[in-house]
Design brief:
mainly alpha; 80 residues
């Protein structure tokens, strides 16, 4: 299975979670009020090969954590 680029996946997760934090969406499914929530949920599911947004988020977080451990120390940006 193809995996999305970690930067793209991170952006999708962050944007979806920001909408959840503002009450525009829930992890049980998208709210009708904002079509962007549905788009993000769908894209997360397709990107992770899952069928529900909770599983998609869990999978995305697992992949992102694995990616962080795969990046060599020299390639990581320096802390400011």
């Amino acid at each position: 299975m193809l995996k999305p680029h970690p930067t793209v996946l991170r952006r999708l997760v962050e944007e979806y979670e920001a909408l959840v934090a503002t009450g525009t969406a829930t992890t049980d499914g998208p709210a009708v009020a904002d079509p962007r929530v549905g788009d993000l949920a769908y894209t997360l599911c397709v990107s992770t090969g899952t069928r529900d947004v909770r599983t998609a988020l869990s999978t995305a977080h697992r992949w992102l954590a694995a990616h962080e451990t795969d990046v060599p120390q020299a390639a990581r940006p320096a802390a400011v």
